[in-house]
Design a protein that fits this description.
alpha/beta; Rossmann fold; 15 helices; 6-stranded parallel beta sheet; 16% strand
Length: 383
């Protein structure tokens, strides 16, 4: 099969990019072909042979930057460029990975194609819309989610929670739950290595967060949690792109300047290695659809303490992670796990086992191929 993939955020450091890369690697391993189409990002260029950057909108770059966002929209010429790439590649399946306020260039080409169409619904866009544009923003994205999904031949979600949400929106097309596969690092950093690398003291305890540093990720709650922990040796390491300056200022205003380190984005292969040297993984986002970084932490043997979210039971169940409701509870749980060595080892062992058994890359690839085959079969049956 030939799969043409469209994303607005590839290859920025985020969960969608990780998911796309894992999917393409799996498809190639099974002798299928893939092409990734996304707006061109300065200083990134083409990151792998399957990646084909196209024109981006200069005005959208300016507009999104006012919200401290690096994402871009397709430019005016992108639709023509994508059409040309599609004619050359001749895909069996169009695979959309980004849902936006209005139809984007890849979506336009895909919808007008006679080939099979698949959407992966990565993000709780209704919550994002509400976060940045109030109730109207949420309503717009609910409508868009229903309209776009019902134009597909198949919809993929990373969790049952999201599948049920789409059904509640009125989506009637087949929905398949396919969690993104995760692989462990071949070798992790040791505690001493990451302390030296990021400037921590030898007796410091490192709470690790990996992901976008932004409003929708509830970073303020992590800072609030840290402020409630009165042990200065317990520090927070934030790895990922986003609102670095604003978060640095917030940490300073909270009196946490010496206890918070923000690295900005790191290469994926380096980020994965950091899990091995941290003491706990902390997470406060309530807008996750798959929680890849939580699974990566568990797979490394790093215990997880997180705010409750809709995906908890599928991604970090209470049998192998600590789940709480508030920042004070998060702070209390962090101190408890660090102090209770028996509980620490239990969470580490059970988390690793859970991640290994439920989130393998090979299982993900086989499920995706089955979805594509079903979508192609559906299109041919309607021809």
């Amino acid at each position: 099969m030939k799969i043409l993939i469209g994303s607005l955020t590839y290859p920025l450091a985020n969960g969608v990019t990780s998911s796309i890369n894992a999917s393409v690697d799996g498809l190639l391993k099974h002798s299928h072909q893939a092409m990734i189409v996304a707006p061109y990002y300065d200083n990134l260029g083409q990151v792998r042979p399957e990646h084909h950057p196209v024109s981006f909108s200069v005005s959208s770059r300016w507009l999104l930057s006012t919200f401290h966002k690096k994402e871009r929209m397709f430019g005016l010429e992108a639709r023509r460029e994508i059409s040309t790439l599609a004619e050359q590649f001749m895909p069996d399946v169009f695979w959309l990975h980004t849902l936006t306020w209005a139809e984007n260039a890849f979506e336009a080409v895909m919808i007008r194609s006679e080939q099979a169409k698949v959407l992966t619904y990565h993000t709780l866009v209704e919550q994002y819309g509400r976060l940045y544009a109030g109730s109207l923003g949420g309503a717009i994205f609910r409508t868009r989610s229903k309209e776009v999904a019902n134009k597909m031949d198949a919809v993929i979600t990373p969790s049952q929670v999201i599948a049920k949400l789409l059904v509640s929106y009125g989506v009637t097309k087949p929905i398949y739950v396919v969690p993104t596969g995760v692989e462990a690092a071949k070798q992790y950093y040791s505690s001493s290595e990451i302390k030296k690398k990021f400037g921590f003291g030898p007796k410091d305890k490192i709470l690790l967060y990996v992901g976008r540093v932004s409003k929708e990720k509830n970073i303020d709650e992590l800072l609030r949690m840290l402020g409630l922990i009165k042990r200065p040796e317990i520090k927070l390491l934030l790895i990922g792109p986003g609102d670095i300056e604003q978060t640095t200022e917030a940490a300073e205003q909270a009196g946490l300047k010496d206890r918070v380190i923000l690295t900005g984005p790191l290469p994926k292969e380096e980020t994965i290695k950091v899990y091995g040297g941290a003491d706990l993984f902390v997470f406060a986002s309530k807008t996750e659809t798959q929680g890849l970084v939580i699974t990566e932490a568990m797979l490394s043997g790093l215990p997880v303490v997180a705010i409750n979210s809709p995906i908890r039971d599928e991604v970090y169940p209470t049998s192998c992670a600590i789940s709480v409701e508030t920042a004070p509870e998060l702070a209390q749980s962090v101190e408890k796990v660090l102090e209770d060595k028996k509980l620490y080892r239990k969470l580490a062992d059970l988390g690793r086992r859970f991640a290994t058994e439920n989130f393998s890359s090979e299982l993900m690839t086989k499920r995706q191929i089955s979805v594509f085959e079903a979508a192609i079969k559906r299109v041919r049956s309607l021809a």
